[in-house]
Amino acid sequence: MPKLIYSAIASLDGYFEDEAGNFDWAAPDGEVHAFINDLERPIGTYLYGRRMYETMVFWEGVSTGTDQPAVIRDFAEIWRAAEKIVYSRTLQSVSSARTRLERDLDPDAVRRLKQISKADITIGGAELAGQALALGLVDECQLFLGPIVVGGGKRALPDTIRAQLELLDERRFRNGVVHLRYRVSV
Asked: In this structure, what are the phi and psi dihedrals at residue 92, rounded to the nearest 5 degrees?
């Protein structure tokens, strides 16, 4: 059965964005971006909260011409090919193809999606992923820890969640980023 994977880039002290809401410090270099592309290539569906969707919808319109680096063109094509479900009570519409809007995260609907999907599913956005973790829906966590301490902001993993994790894989990149892949134990 396909897995639901929470993937996030975070500071070493565990923040998804800093206190000012910035995450420019998390932009992957070419090596990390190519690795992320390879992880994302087999994904069939992205589950997003509103804020994460508003960040990621950039990929719908980015140029895939030769004026862009190969990793950018590649990710844009990967992102556009996947289905997307956006969970928001405030968003009125979505502006990308292959995208639908849902008001609430329905655990039974996510379980059904996992049963019928032919490919893995990712969940993006710390708040939405936290809800899914609390509901026991997440099968794996993939964290990219950057060599920076931001001192506060929005946590990549909520304070209120407790989960047992089993390390499956790790990778160190030249720029100091570390990728950690964990199975979420039940």
From this structure: -90, -30
* Gap between the Cα atoms of 154 and 151, Å rounded: 10
pLDDT in tens, 7-34: 999 999 999 999 999 999 999 999 999 9
Taking CA 120 as the corner, what is the angle to CA 159 and CA 44, rounded to the nearest 5 degrees? 115
Query: Which domains does the chain possess?
Result: 4-185 (3.40.430.10)
| pTM to 2 decimal places | 0.95
Q: Per residue in 54-93, pLDDT tens?
A: 999 999 999 888 999 999 999 999 999 999 999 999 999 9
Residue of 36, 2, 1 whose CA lies nearest to 120: 2
